[in-house]
Every structure is written in structure tokens, then in C-alpha cells.
Design goal:
By secondary structure, the protein is an alpha/beta fold. The chain has five helices and five strands. Strand 1, helix 1 and strand 2 form a beta-alpha-beta unit. It is globular and about 40 Å long. The termini are close together. The model has no long low-confidence stretch (mean pLDDT about 95). The structure holds flavin mononucleotide. Flavin mononucleotide binds next to helix 1, helix 2 and strand 4.
Length: about 160
Amino acid sequence: MNTAIVYYSLNGNTKFAASRIAEKLNADLIELHPKKAYHDKGFKKFYFGGKSAVMGEKPELMPYEFNADKYDTIILGMPVWASCITPPLRTFLEEYKDLLKNKEIAVILCQSGSGANKVLEKLKKLLGRESFKAELVLIDPKTNPKDENELKINKFCIEF
Ligand SMILES: Cc1cc2nc3c(=O)[nH]c(=O)nc-3n(C[C@H](O)[C@H](O)[C@H](O)COP(=O)(O)O)c2cc1C
């Protein structure tokens, strides 16, 4: 099984989870960076990031390498923003949606409270799927480390 983890992370939580999972599954890591970086702290972080997510923006991304032919399984990783798909992932999905049709898809979501279920529904709708191969929802695994997150990461990798 050839797996890529395509993810965006503003404050390192999704990056932390994606890296741990890539190690365990021997997956390639592809990090997305918007050309115009989002504010990463304070009021502006929530205001501009939240607005961008709710508006369904698709920001331009820095160049990255992703060859869909190389993979049969793609794990999408992102933080929950205002219960919406994070904009850099929206840009990626817009470009690759058709090429992902015959792939297995799994999802990793990081959040600080709730909203992940809504994001999963939005992703299913966008990708035209009833379900994903696997789903993992973590609460701030880097900034608020807990044994529970480690257990969930291990379970996700074993069941993958
Ligand atoms: C713009 C913005 C909106 C957010 N909205 C939510 C939300 O709706 N629900 C939630 O539980 N956490 C929300 N969060 C918190 C992040 O999802 C959470 O801290 C996540 O672990 C951050 O991942 P990262 O470090 O990879 O960026 C939001 C954070 C930002 C910056």
C-alpha cells in the first residue's frame, strides 16, 4: 500500500499527528503552505482564518510535489476551522478531486473542542463519498499532549 499524507497545519498540531502517523505507516508527508500565510496567533488568527474557512476560500499554495499515480491511499490532515474544511485543503481538493476518485481516503482532524463531525460531512459531500477508510479526531495533540491522543493514533495506525 502506497500512502501519502497531505496536510495543512497552522500551529503544529496536525503536523505532529501527521508526522507520527507517517512514521508508523511509512507514508509520504506532503505539507501544504498557502502563499499568503495565515496569522498564527491572537484575534487575527481566528478572525481571518475563520472568515476564510466559512467563505470556502481556496488560497493559492506554494509549489509542492504530489503525484497521484504514486499512491493508492491518501490521508487528508487538517485543523477544524469554524467547523469547516481548512482553506489550503480546499485548494488541494479542488485541484485533485477527480484524480482521488479511485483512491482510498482517510482523514485526520485536529480541533480544540468540536466541529470535526461537520467537517467530515462536508468532506464526504465534496468528495462524493459515503464513508472514509478511517477517521481520526484529536484534541490539540501537540499543545495539549495526552495519553488518549497517543492511544487514538496507535489505534488508527493498527486498524488502517
Ligand atoms: C481560524 C480557526 C478556527 C478554529 N475553529 C475551531 C472549531 O470550529 N472547533 C474547534 O474545536 N477548534 C477550532 N479551532 C482550533 C484548532 O482546530 C485546533 O487548535 C487545532 O488543533 C489546530 O491545529 P494546527 O496546530 O495543526 O493548526 C480553530 C482554530 C483556528 C485558527
